[in-house]
Amino acid sequence: MVSRVLAMMRKEFIQIRRDRRTLAMVLVQPVMLLLLFGYGINTVVDHLDMIVFDESGDFDSRTLIAAFENSGYFDVAAHALSRAELADAIDAGRAKVALHIPPDFGNQVMRGQMGELQLVVDGSDPNVASTASFAAAAVAQSQSVRLTSAMMARRGVSGTAGGIDLRPVVLYNPSMKSVNFMVPSIIALILTFQTLLLTAFAVVREREQGTLEQIIVTPIRTWEFMLGKILPYTVTASAAAAISVVAARIIFGVEIAGSVLLLSLLSILFLLGSLGMGLFVSTLSQTAGQATQMAMFIIMPSILLSGFMYPRDSMPFVIQQLGLLVPMTYYLEILRGIILKGVGFQVLWPAVFPLALFSFIVFGLSAWRFQKRIA
Fold first, then answer.
1. Parallel, antiparallel, or unpaired: how do β-strands 74-79 and 97-101 relate?
2. 153 half-sphere exposure, CB direction, 13 A CA radius
3. Residues 266 and 284 in one domain
4. Residue that terminates a domain, selected from 171, 201, 216
5. Nearest of 91, 92, 96, 100 to residue 125 by alpha carbon
6. Residue 299 domain-assigned (yes or no)
7. Do 66 and 119 share a structural domain?
8. Strand-strand pairing, 97-101 and 48-54
9. For residue 237, is it within any domain?
10. Domain boundary among 120, 143, 171
11. Residue-number span of the structural domain to which 294 is assigned
């Protein structure tokens, strides 16, 4: 019995050794996931980009801004010259938090009155929004005690008076419901899975069943074969995404704030890239197992690096740069911009351009390689 088991084990190890592509992915994927989770995934929300409009411009306002930065939760990315710049920065995603200090802030504090501040928070990610609100409130409270104590010391009296009145405003998702954040993510995941994984698997299945050669010798052209293969999965992926949007609207009350037409057109752009990756995987795979492994090798980094679950602002700089190579990063910005913020192409174009470049290049190269393989 032992000899028969050892013989079978030897046979399987030989098969594993011969299937070098699958073996390489099986050995590399755990290390890749370990590195991504170890270095790239940070559930602690900190170092959020903040834009500041300081109309007071005195010592107290500068000290307040420094306190926000020293807290570790905020990084002042820019200084605005108007309230319109604050709104534009939040709409475009250049900042997650905006702080407006009115011109009479310092005078109000000096007179023992409440110095008013307005904090505008991007609520598209509830986790980021709640953390930013709580951290800003803590900073404002500590600075309120400091300013009040300094003012009373200058007057030579004791007691409490004045302070800081922080007034937060949460945009796009005022109730900070997590479902509003997850709906765009689910749409991106559906389109990726349906097009990349199933397209690659369908082509490989033809090769495994021996029907690919039979199809090639028929009068069908290569581009007709490609089109007939990828269009069904494009339609099913689009239908699944549409059902998700409708279900989110009916069940959870999530509405599309922007243009449905623009969302559809840019989704087609993203589909080109996913279909191209599916075709590319099909040219490298000989079996369905290989296709699945390769597809997951692409999908997992996309989920982890794109901001699908974890905010990219909290990731190390190198990991953030790697995320710029993932098309889902740009597509999520587009989805959340249109669905939650209601912004248009004039705001989304920094994400649309790299997504279009990636999609057309990958689809073109993958289609060329695919035609070469089946010719």
1. unpaired
2. 6
3. yes
4. 171
5. 96
6. yes
7. yes
8. parallel
9. yes
10. 171
11. 177-374
Q: The tokens of 282 are what? A: 């099909």
Structural domains of the chain, count: 2
Contacts of 247 (CB under 8 A, 6+ apart): none
Q: Which residue has the tokens 């609100």?
A: 133
Minimal CA–CA distance to 173: which of 227, 72, 253? Answer: 253
Q: Tell me which long-range contacts 314-321 makes (C-beta under 8 A, separation of at least 24).
A: 314/42, 314/43, 314/44, 314/45, 314/46, 314/47, 315/40, 315/41, 315/42, 316/39, 316/40, 316/42, 318/39, 319/36, 319/39, 319/40
- Averaged over successive runs of 10 residues, the pLDDT of the chain (375 residues) comes to 69 65 62 62 77 88 89 90 89 90 81 82 88 90 79 59 80 84 85 81 72 68 72 81 83 85 90 84 77 81 82 78 88 91 90 91 80 59
End-to-end alpha carbon distance in the chain: 49
Same domain, 195 and 114: no
* Predicted pLDDT of residue 353: 94
Cα separation values, 208 from 198, 201, 327, Å: 15, 10, 30
Q: Which amino acid is at 93?
A: G
